[in-house]
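PROTEIN DATA CARD
Card holder: Glucose-6-phosphate 1-dehydrogenase
Chain length: 491
Origin: Neoasaia chiangmaiensis
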Amino acid sequence: MTADKQVKPFDYVVFGATGDLTMRKLLPAFYYRLLSGEVPDSARIIGTARSPLDRATYQGRARDALKRFVAPADFKEAQVERFLNMVYYVSLDGSKADSNWEGLSGLLSEGPQDHVRVFYFATAPNLYEAVSANLHAKGLVTDDARVVLEKPIGTDLATADEINTGVGKFFKENNIFRIDHYLGKETVQDVIALRFANPLLSAVWSGDYIKSVQITAAETVGVEGRAAYYDTSGALRDMVQNHLLQVLCLVAMEPPASLEADAVRDAKVAVLKSLRPLAGDRLTSDTVRGQYVAGEINEENVRGYLEELGHASNTETYVALRAEVDTPRWKNVPFYIRTAKRLHRKVSEIVITFKPAETNLFPQAPKANVLVIRVQPDEGLTWHLSVKDPQDDSFELRDATMDTHFGPQFKVRYPDAYERLLLDAVRGYPVLFIRRDEVEAAWRWVAPIMEAWANGTVPMSQYAAGSWGPEEATAMLAEHGDTWHEAIHRQ
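Structure generated from the sequence above:
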């Protein structure tokens, strides 16, 4: 999935343009795509927010954002000025009908009318319907206008349905782009290539050869500036319901008929509908939730979650789940999903553990082969294989690793996920975005877990900041004869 050529000229209207997401991710992503030659000079990026700023002041903020979040070697003065010439600003409260809509309408009408029009909602999701209604009422929603919705799409199935229905009143479903930045990560997309372009992997990609799958997204940081949002969300809603279930779908899906959007998304929905419900005793045996307490990370003492928050809370910062996909391909294969704040190391990875060879040829039984797909950082692959010990005259075996580091190998900068996704919305290419039935299927599977946790069915575990999580998560795998990857292979 390499980058396409330059996209059509566009007007990209960002609601929430003074927020952290816009400054930290969206503006740098547009800038990098300008450097790559994909953004035409006539394109316009129009920021809107309630702050009473003029264009020059907002351009100054955009420059500061690039200075902070773009690599120094890529901050090129001529290109920065070229980029800033594309940046506009309108002071506007998108949720209110009596706000400065004439300012936005006038700016859009001044530009070429053949531009692709995209609205990006980087606001609270409960405002999505109101903003959509106002855009429609002011005549700004053209037949081909697209809207990009940031997560979370609701806090449960009912609120997700409310948001989707509300936005769907004013935008066609095929023009609604529900963004999940994990799908924009190159190494996540690479799962498709690894599985279906390599006969060796394709042949063994099933429960006949695979013992277990681990999907981990670990962070060393705490909640920091997101405490207010995070404490109403938690790790299950923030990471599992969207990002990690999407990764699971790519690992577990059947070969799609093509790489067209609906073919891929049909295959993912089939996985979500095949997930065995976590209910009854499985809620206590196959789910773990936890909060970090004070500990040490990188030789620095850090406070616990409740200390950072400043009040009592029943919100989890750690989740570990054991999922099963009820299809012939994955019969009896556990999928372990894990995400957390304040773990020992920042890492996002997919670990495929194969069944060990059944042979009596060697003095000891061969260990299981393990394939690690490193999503971030250090994108690449690691194979753990059994080889003959060169210091032993008999056939003693030892563990060897084969490492591939994609960045140095391809001699490229690995792009941020938002770069691809922002322009895919312009292209009208939705394969890396979430369809409505995907959102609903994911919420249906997560719902019993949320309910059990809210009722206190599963106790809240604790883990020290800087550790790899609570002992209960280790015990969950041990009950099935499995071990977390770092306990064996990671130093």
